[in-house]
Backbone:
């Protein structure tokens, strides 16, 4: 059997979700549901469809609901066995039967770079995917991670998914610039975390999909925290980019920023219309 190029997907899921307070006071933001599925399940399903079966989740205090979701609940299953409600568990049963889940905790919130570094014991020394559950992506054909893995198989380097944003919003994203080497594929030469609009090198923003080569861990260990004390993944990726080893990919599909209320509501409405 052919070895899959990307076998593991890392899900940073330790954040507080302060933009959704008070809903996230006692519930992980990753467990907020768009229709009948929590955000993190959409991300896991995307990874599964891309051929990944090892899910590595970075959690924190108050995140036990994530572990419970990807586990069998014998009492509930016994209660609804033989009823019409049993089919509602079909999607999560498929995930549980097909995937393995491993967890570790991020003890301190020190940024996405630190969260990814925390996942090193789960990932090991191999290239891996990263999905941020806040970004829910909808595609008609191959999903975003499938598209990126095909690109990784060709170029064998780190890849970030990018999309054009309003120039006034650059201070909310990591922003890249570079040279287009194929349609929609950019060799990254510059990468800045949340620049002011007047300082941004472009309007191409990194969204929550990455493929990272394992040397990123050693780079993250040496990456100095930014002014707010966080270790930025963009700083580590810029080290790789300086050697020509990072691509930006304009993915095919639509991304919803479910980390804010407007994006969450838009995703709910659009998916409701599609599934109606």
Residues:
């Amino acid at each position: 059997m052919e070895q899959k190029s990307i076998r593991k997907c890392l899900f940073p899921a330790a954040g507080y979700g302060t933009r959704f307070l008070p809903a996230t006071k006692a519930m992980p933001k990753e467990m907020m549901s768009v229709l009948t599925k929590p955000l993190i399940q959409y991300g896991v399903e995307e990874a599964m469809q891309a051929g990944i079966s090892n899910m590595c989740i970075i959690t924190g205090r108050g995140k036990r609901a994530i572990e419970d979701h990807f586990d069998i609940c014998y009492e509930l299953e016994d209660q609804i066995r033989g009823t019409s409600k049993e089919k509602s568990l079909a999607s999560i049963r498929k995930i549980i039967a097909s995937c393995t889940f491993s967890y570790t905790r991020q003890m301190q919130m020190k940024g996405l770079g630190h969260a990814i570094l925390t996942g090193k014991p789960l990932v090991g020394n191999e290239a891996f995917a990263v999905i941020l559950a806040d970004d829910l992506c909808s595609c008609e054909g191959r999903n975003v991670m499938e598209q990126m893995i095909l690109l990784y198989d060709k170029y064998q380097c780190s890849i970030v998914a990018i999309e054009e944003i309003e120039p006034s919003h650059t201070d909310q994203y990591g922003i890249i610039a570079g040279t287009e080497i194929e349609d929609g594929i950019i060799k990254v030469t510059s990468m800045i975390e949340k620049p002011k609009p007047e300082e941004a090198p472009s309007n191409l923003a990194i969204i929550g999909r990455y493929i990272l080569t394992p040397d990123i861990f050693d780079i993250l260990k040496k990456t100095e925290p930014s002014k707010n004390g966080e270790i930025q993944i963009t700083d580590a990726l810029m080290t790789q980019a300086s050697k020509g080893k990072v691509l930006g990919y304009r993915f095919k599909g639509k991304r919803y920023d479910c980390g804010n209320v407007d994006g969450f509501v838009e995703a709910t409405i659009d998916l409701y219309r599609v599934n109606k």
Remarks:
- The chain has one domain: 8-275.
